[in-house]
Design brief:
single chain
């Protein structure tokens, strides 16, 4: 399949946007996971373990969503 230079350029731009969105989701996931682990140590008994587990689960879902977003990248060749 022949790809014109314009189509290749458009695919590169789209892939960069997809990578940026995936990076955003993964950084949000990392901060949620770290926050869910650090908050109980800092706040002690004030933080309910249910909410900490919920934040950790949302971090894991954000990470998985980042992988799903990467599947939307277009072939550049």
């Amino acid at each position: 399949m022949l790809v014109t230079p314009r189509e290749k350029h458009i695919a590169k731009i789209a892939n960069e946007r997809v990578k940026l969105i995936a990076a955003l989701l993964n950084s949000l996931a990392a901060s949620a996971l770290i926050g869910s682990l650090v908050a109980p140590f800092i706040a002690g008994s004030v933080v309910d373990p249910f909410w900490s587990a919920l934040v950790a689960g949302s971090g894991a879902l954000l990470h998985l969503l980042g992988h799903v977003v990467l599947d939307f990248s277009k072939p550049e060749q």
